[in-house]
Amino acid sequence: MIAPVTLLALAAAGTASAGELRATVRNVKPNQGKVMIALFDSAEAQAAKAPRAGYFAAAVGTELVAVFPDLPAGRYGLIAFQDLDNDGELATGLFGIPAEPHGFSRSARGSFGPPKFDDYAVPVGASGVVTTEIRLVE
Predict the structure, then answer these.
(1) How many independent structural domains does the chain possess?
(2) d(C-alpha 32, C-alpha 60), whole Å
(3) Which of 8, 84, 104, 130: CA 20 to 30 A from 34?
(4) What is the residue range of the signal peptide feature (predicted)?
(5) Residue 4 has what pLDDT?
(6) How do residues 19-58 score in pLDDT, each as one tens digit?
(7) Where residue 83 sits, what CATH number does that domain have?
(8) Is residue 18 part of a domain?
(9) CA distance 73 to 33
(10) C-alpha angle 114/117/118, rounded to 5°?
(11) Nearest 5°: phi and psi at 64?
């Protein structure tokens, strides 16, 4: 049985008209650590490891839904990982390859490294709801 957990991410936008980004994170290992999600608004922010928002939720079921309301129009990318060892960081192995389940919005995958921001960015308008999926892989 899938037990979705809704994560409400309060982004500081402060505008009367704003969009909402909802991401369904799939392939979560139930009852093992937390799922960490970072919201980036540019490739530069990703490179600087400076997310616009960052949130986490207990890994209760096999999927969860993260909701990021009040976003100004723009392009946003989500990076998620399941922190199985509860140390707050993505564990890596040989050559920096992730050793914990991880994924990107639009279920984007990179070749020989993570995908580029353009590959996982999702356009969000000034109003309405945009949905995306993140499939965690090991």
Answers:
(1) 1
(2) 8
(3) 130
(4) 1-18
(5) 42
(6) 999 999 999 999 999 999 999 999 999 999 999 998 899 9
(7) 2.60.40
(8) yes
(9) 33
(10) 120
(11) -145, 160
